[in-house]
Design goal:
Number of helices: 6
Order of helices and strands: HEHEHEHEEHH
Radius of gyration: 26 Å
Number of strands: 5
Structural class: alpha+beta
Shape: elongated
Helix content: 55-70%
CATH class of the largest domain: Alpha Beta
CATH superfamily of the largest domain: Ribosomal protein L10, N-terminal RNA-binding domain
């Protein structure tokens, strides 16, 4: 890899570190190509990506970026899993680590906050952006449904009273 290629990789990694909601660093030593492809597919399904890069280039890219202290995690055979959604990459990597003992989460970063293994696990347990939106919408919609039910209730009560009177009159 010549200097121009290295500079391009550093620039790409810098953009990843700046624009990602979460970056997870893990060891992948001993994983097969099929397992790595499976991980990439799962990350792609949630809008994330997986990137293998030289640790030295990743450390250079981290200089002056949010979460620059996670450079200490870049030792050995590391892989970066990242997503714009602050929870997606953490959820996928946590689930994948449970199923594959050769994939070991070291930590990561969420904005300026550096995460250890427990931090990544905590982020993975949080609801995703879509789940939060659904919860908020249901909270907003519930009062409206209650109001509609309350407004409609007197009319249904009148209708049942009228039908009762009709039945008595017919008898």
């Amino acid at each position: 890899m010549d200097r121009a290629q290295k500079e391009k990789v550093v620039e790409e990694l810098g953009q990843i570190f700046e624009s990602s909601g979460v970056v997870v660093i893990a060891h992948y030593e001993g994983m097969t190509v099929k397992q790595m492809q499976d991980l990439r597919a799962k990350m792609r399904d949630v809008g994330g990506s997986v990137r293998v890069a030289k640790n030295k280039l990743a450390k250079i890219a981290l200089e002056g970026k949010p979460g620059s202290k996670m450079g200490d995690l870049l030792t050995g055979m590391t892989v970066l899993a990242y997503s714009e959604d602050p929870v997606a990459a953490a959820k996928v990597t946590e689930a994948y680590a449970k199923a594959n003992d050769k994939f070991v989460i070291l930590g990561g970063a969420m904005g300026n906050d550096v995460l250890d293994q427990a931090g990544v696990k905590a982020v993975a347990s949080m609801p995703s952006r879509e789940e939060l939106i659904a919860q908020i919408v249901s909270c907003i919609g519930a009062p409206a449904a209650n109001i509609a039910g309350a407004i409609g209730a007197p009319a249904s009560n009148i209708a049942s009273i009228l039908s009762t009177i009709e039945e008595k009159a017919a008898a």
